[in-house]
Amino acid sequence: MNKETKLCHDDQEYFKNQGAIVPPIFQNSLFAFEDWDEIDAAFNRPEEAAIYTRGTNPTVKFVEDKIAAIAQGEKARLFASGMGAISAAILHCVKAGSHIVSAQQIYGPANNFMHNYLTQKCGISISYVDGSAESYAKALRPETSLFYLESPGSVMFPVLDVPAITQIARKHNIKTVMDNTWATPLFQPVLTMGVDLEVHSCSKYLGGHSDIVAGVIIGSKSDLDAIQLHEQAWLGAKMAPFEAWLLLRSLRSLPIRLRQHQHNAMAIAAFLEQHPAVARVHYPGLGSFPQRELALKQFKGFSGLMSFELATDDLNRIKEFVDGLQLFKLGVSWGGHDSLVYPPAISYLKEQSPEQFEALGIPRGLIRISVGLEHVNDLINDLDRQLSGLGQ
Ligand SMILES: *Cc1c(COP(=O)(O)O)cnc(C)c1O
């Protein structure tokens, strides 16, 4: 063989894993076949066969199967982002003229996709409801084809009665899509509560290390096969092999990370609740949470994202509080090892007038924190120093 040929060809024997304890990354775009008949047979089962990585890649599939198993779904598909997964799941459930019923407090870009994009481009309509099962039932129309859920919401943490809502959907042959990013499949197994399509941003707890942007849909084989062949293949937001490999690494520590996020968050929520500079804490894990009974029924655990209201609405003092924190870093997103702080007022006041912001019911002094994996005493000291500086 000439050097040129040698450089282009890999010894196939070399890749027989060699006892590697971590599966290798199949970092390839396509798969080659022995002959006509073999590739012909692969084309006959496009949901399974590895032909091209936008369809199936062994590294990605390995992780999809693992996530499907922990979420008790038949099949999962990984996407290049949470929004890639969410938009594909929604598109699978609607057509021109469809009507969507959605909870009010959902992730902003998911809301914009339905409310500003699908309504304009596809003649789809959307109704927002307060989140009770009755409110979903009342909003029903003959053309309703999707109930969209997120629970808890990630600003004020309202909790939906998932089994009651999915029961209504099933009775009327309506699909349900639920964003379960906050709780993860470990703390809230929503497929066992009647949800058709569970979606996650894996950029949060499933990834957990603030180093990937990724998404997943989990559900029945028939729904996921259709999404794979249509919305995923044609819009193309497929996860890349290296991201899947990082996610596989992350999933190994998901249970132990969640346990520690919960431990730290519980202690911080209790600390904040008794602090005179804090008006209110929004965290489903607290005994004083207004929907406590529903939360205990639905969650097997509570993750690390919460919000609290400073007892002031003076923007300068709110800004001082945020800027002076040393361990909590200022940034969007959440669910990583690193603790973060984010006051929604920053982005809302950019996009909306103070009156519109007021009308959303989100207090100006609301601070969202993602509690990470640092020692909880250090995190409490960081908050305590800044809160005490605020006075009352
Ligand atoms: C971040 C987030 C998403 C979107 O995920 P990306 O990976 O950023 O596309 C969806 N839902 C919730 C609740 C999120 O926090």
What descriptors fit this protein?
392 residues, alpha/beta, 7-stranded mixed beta sheet, globular
Beta content:
5-15%
Please report the total strand number as a whole number. 12
- Number of separate helices: 16
CA radius of gyration = 23 Å
Main sheet: strand order: 1-7-6-5-4-2-3
| Overall helicity | 40-55%
Low-confidence stretches: none
- Taking the alpha carbons of the first and last residues, their distance comes to 79 Å
Quaternary structure state of the chains depicted? single chain
Taken in chain order, the helices and strands follow as HHHEHEHEHEHEHEEHHHEHEHEEHHEH
Question: Would you write up a description of this structure?
Answer:
It is a single chain. With 392 residues, the protein is of the alpha/beta class. 42% of the residues lie in helices and 15% in strands. It is built from 16 helices and 12 strands. The protein has helices at 3-8, 36-43, 58-70, 82-93, 108-122, 133-138, 162-171, 184-187, 221-235, 241-252, 254-273, 292-298, 315-324, 345-351, 354-359, 376-390; strands spanning 75-79, 99-103, 125-129, 144-150, 175-179, 197-201, 215-219, 278-282, 305-310, 329-330, 340-342, 366-370. The strands form 2 sheets. A 7-stranded mixed beta sheet has the order 1-7-6-5-4-2-3, sandwiched between helices. A 5-stranded mixed beta sheet has the order 8-9-12-11-10, with helices on one face. Helix 5 (108-122) links the parallel strand 2 (99-103) and strand 3 (125-129). Helix 4 packs parallel to helix 5 (108-122), helix 4 (82-93) packs across helix 9 (221-235) and helix 13 (315-324) runs antiparallel to helix 16. The longest helix is centred in the C-terminal third of the chain and has 20 residues, at 254-273. The radius of gyration is 23 Å and the shape is globular. The mean pLDDT is 94. Bound molecules: pyridoxal-5'-phosphate (PLP). Pyridoxal-5'-phosphate (PLP) binds at residues 81-83, 86, 107, 154, 179, 181, 201, 203-204, 213, 215.
